[in-house]
Amino acid sequence: MSFIVGSGLTRYGRHEGRTSLDLMTEAATGALADAALARQDIDGVLCGYSTTMPHLMLATVFAEHFGLHPRYAQCVQMGGATGLGLVMLAHHLVRSGAARRILVVAGENRMTGQSRDSVVQVLAQVGHPVYEVPLGASIPAYYGLVASRYMRAFGNSERDFAALAVLMRQHALRHEGAQFRTPITEEEVLASRPIATPLKLLDCCATADGACAVVVSAEPTGANAVRVLGAAQHHNAQHISAMDDLTQLGAGACTARALQSAGRKLADVEYAGIYDSFTITLTMLLEEIGLAPRGRAGQWAREGRFGREGAVPLNLHGGLLSYGHCGVAGAMAHLAEAHLQLTGRAGERQAPRAGLTLLHADGGVLSSHVSVVLEKA
Amino acid sequence: MSDAQPTSEIDTRLHYQRCGACGHAWYFRRDFCPACGDTAPQALAASGAGRLYAATLVHRAPSEEFKALVPYAIVLADMGEGFRVMGHGEPGLALDTPVRCELRGIAGRLIPFFVKDHYAS
Question: Among A217, A355, B79, B102, which has the highest number of CB atoms less than 10 A from its own CB?
Fold first, then answer.
């Protein structure tokens, strides 16, 4: 058993002049305050990576900078799945007794710390360096390929994808920390400029600066504890050229194992935080996990099933598509929002019935998957 | 007229590997079979015949050398020999239709390029 006892989340967007360590510090400070813990209470540090501050030992660098003396510290690299991978690792470390209160922190100035071309090039390295990257393929191109196959298999339309971009924007309107807070329509998504068909600009998340942190503890200390009930991973081939079937990702089996380890069923889920790097990503994950039938995620979004008062409220902070995406911390914002929802502190975003929570993220091009199940303590 | 033969020819055939022990075929070159571990895989030239598995038209290039080429189609094709390849393709190729692969010089490299196979069914 482990507990998330505090979370800290910065505004996502432009943070001119602030470094990865600056942003991580802000989030870590917030998480400690939320948990009512001091630096000396923390005995473990888990970090991801920062593309603007590549380092062999970022966890130790951050611990020194922030003023921590952990008995356990390490970094994890799983692309977009890193944030939930860190929480899963913290859960197991706490249960094993290797540490009792672990600060999980990630952040970077991905937007202002480098040129956009540099971001695109760094991220394209997710592809194969010999057989994919030299073709001029990019991350949106990989997801465009996946989308073409998925649409053929299950009949989703570009308008169905657009409905999910609209939903994430609607949710972001209620969060002052979100990067994008101007309402959009399906027509505007469809008319936005093409990036890699069928994906258009508003089907893709943008790049942000920002950071997020949580404290994972062996005990439910403080006033804001939620229980980590279970977690699971699934890994496909790294490269989409080497994946057998681009319409079967293993995400469904992964969440099923996480729910099983939690002793719960999918039908029990009352809040969901699902990775949404592109509208196709969110579509595939929702449909494979079983939170929407195949081909119907967009329609279900239009019908309000994923809204604040719907059957399964989804990414009520706005997700990567509208709250923003700053690397490892991107998917951790889903976790921070779930923490607020489960502790009844989400203000005007608060879902009336946010109980059992399912989080799922993927890294690479749907390559690595992590699911985490939370509930009220 | 000289009857001299060209001293070197660029091989424009697509190559893959097959395991003599278990029969597995794959594209990313290795000196062992990733399915069974056999250490004597064969390097073979593919027929070039395949079927289009996925396709996207890229409008925003990731690097300077590809910016002049946009929009260009990136595709995945399943080859007749049982392996999958990413390459460029003719724009507008429909999924699941027969395609034919040849290596073409694009952005300074020989890369797989897929065209519609009008003679396959």
Answer: A217
Contact flag A145-B56 (C-beta cutoff 8 Å): yes
In a domain, A8, yes or no: yes
Count of structural domains, chain A: 1
3-state DSSP assignment of residue B54: strand
Place of tokens 């709250």: A323
Does residue B89 fall inside a structural domain? yes
Task: With respect to residue A354, please indicate whether it lies within any of the assigned structural domains.
Answer: no
Does residue A7 sit within a domain? yes
Interval B73-94: pLDDT, tens: 999 999 999 999 999 999 999 9
- Which residues 196-225 of chain A have a CB within 8 Å of chain B? 196-199
Please write the tens of the pLDDT for every residue from A300-339. Answer: 999 999 999 999 999 999 999 999 999 999 999 999 999 9
Can you tell me whether residue A8 is helix, strand or coil? strand
Residue A55: give the domain boundaries: 2-113+208-217
| Helix %, strand %, coil % of chain A (to 5) | 40, 20, 40
Please give the residue range of the domain that contains residue B64: 47-116
CATH number of the domain where residue B112 is located? 2.40.50
Which residues in chain B are closer than 8 Å to A152, comparing Cβ atoms?
95-96
What is d(CA A195, CA A279) in angstroms, rounded to the nearest whole number? 13
A327: left (phi over 0), alpha (psi -120 to 50) or beta: left
On whether the CB atoms of residues B46 and B66 are closer than 8 A, the answer is: no
CB spacing of B58 vs A193 below 8 angstroms: no
The pairing of strands A101-109 and A44-47 is parallel
The chain B residue lying nearest A123, using CA atoms, is: B62
Task: Kindly provide the ipTM of the predicted complex, given to two decimals.
Answer: 0.93
pTM of the predicted protein model? 0.95
Please provide the DSSP assignment of A320-339 as one string: HHHT---THHHHHHHHHHHH
At residue A162, the pLDDT reads 98
Quick one: pLDDT band at residue B121, thresholds 50, 70, 90?
low
